[in-house]
Amino acid sequence: MRRLKNIAFIICLIYFVNTIDAQETMKVSLDDVIALAQKQAPSVQLAKTKLSNNYWRYQSTLANYKPQMVLDGQIPNLQRSSFQTTLPTGEQKFIRQASLGAQLGVQLRQDLALTGGSVFAGTGLSYLRNFELNGVPASNQYFSDIIYVGLEQPIFGFNQLKFEKKLAPLEYSEATRSYAEEMEMIAMQGAVLFFDIFSAQLNLEAAQKNKMNADSLFEISKGRFSVGRIAETDLLQIELSAMNANADLASASLNKQTNSEALRNFLGIKDIVDFDLVPPTALPDYQLDKERAVQLSQTNRSKSFEFQRRMLEANATMARAKAETGIQANLIARFGLSRNGAANIGEAYQSPSDDEQVSLGFRIPIADWGKAKARLEIAESVLNLEQLNIEQERINLEQEVRLKVLQFDLVREQVALALRAYEVAQKREDITRKRYLIGKVGVTELNLALQEMDAGRRSYISALQSFWLAHYEMRGLTLFDFVNERSLVKSD
Q1: What is the pLDDT of residues 354-407, one digit of tens each?
Q2: Helices and strands, number each (H, E), in the chain
Q3: Do 82 and 221 fall within a single domain?
Q4: Domain span including residue 359
Q5: Which DSSP string corresponds to 108-158?
Q6: Could you tell me if 119 and 110 are in contact, meaning their C-beta atoms sit under 8 angstroms apart?
Q7: Is 437 inside any structural domain?
Q8: Averaged over 228-248, what is the pLDDT?
Q9: Residue 296 belongs to domain with CATH number
Q10: Half-sphere exposure (CA, 13 Å, Cβ side) for 158?
Q11: Contact 129, 116 (CB under 8 A)
């Protein structure tokens, strides 16, 4: 059984060594991993695409409030058919027609966000040629809209344009903050994967060292056993420790390889590489202030703009409900100069006639059996509920930031304590090993020292990871780089 375990270990070790030899070694720090992740990770492309979509949606909305010019026409319009008509005598008759028409017009329209209406102006020209048919000679006619101006204005209605003009910048600001938050989430994921490999790398180095030490102790212990200086039970325990060291080395090698593959896939690296990580032991030197962190969170995060957007939408729903319960009217006014029946283009722009149109349509609800009132009550309750929800969410976010600031100060202190404990455990293991070699302590004390050193290493790695994750979490909560004192939000 022991021989089979040794053979399996040798096979795993040979496979691991050959795999490493075939890989390119990539030495990276935590900052390098974060920079690569935020530049080329597959999830970054998705975040950039979402931001681009929101940007062009915002630009499209802004374009609605600029003048819109349209050229429309119909060239040609050929008709040769029969149709039913009523003669002056009242008789119904089918007659034949054959004509060629064309029309062309230009209109300039400007929507008015202040009032919800629009003004327009334009010009146009139409042409009609009746072909000779049934003895009726051919004829040409021109009709020109030389110029016309007009106004369309809803009265007492809901101003959708005004609402959308306020909503669009909020939505885009929310989108830019969401993008920055997604980038910080990617940084957090990169940091987690970095420490997975970093932990595996240290465990592999420790496993290699433990194997060498375990093999040396086993050889020494066999010599001592042969001269009767140690009992057979101690020799068997040391042999078991050597076998466990072999298994730990194989497991640590496989674990590092697995975590390296996870980071490579996350970063979008197609080549097979072996990461050689630079320990992030140098901690950034900055202090967090609770009030400043809360203020930055309220200013920068997408939630702040989400709250404003939700309140604006709730108020818009309320305004719409009010507008639909009362009088609604629509005013249309148009004035222009035109010429009809001209025989040629020149005449179409001579001696024009004035055209006027003014109409006011209205709608007054008389009885709806409480439907409008119910709609208004629902909108009001939705508005009140949204106010309460937003206020509670704002308080929760503020409390979260304050708590994270307190935790950040604690994890910084824990790194220093864990490092000191690991250094002490390393020194104790070294002293205990040397004392064992000269026969001053037994194998039990040696194993205990080894366990304490392993526990110290794991605690230090855990504390270091907790600090860096807290660091990137604070960046995500405030969208602010405290090291370089700059905002992480892309300018609107």
Answers
A1: 888 999 888 888 877 878 788 888 988 999 999 999 999 999 999 999 999 999
A2: 10, 10
A3: no
A4: 70-112+117-158+328-364
A5: EEEE-TTTS-EEEEEEEEEEEEEPPBTTBPPEEEEEEEEEEEEEEEEESS-
A6: yes
A7: yes
A8: 75
A9: 1.20.1600.10
A10: 14
A11: no
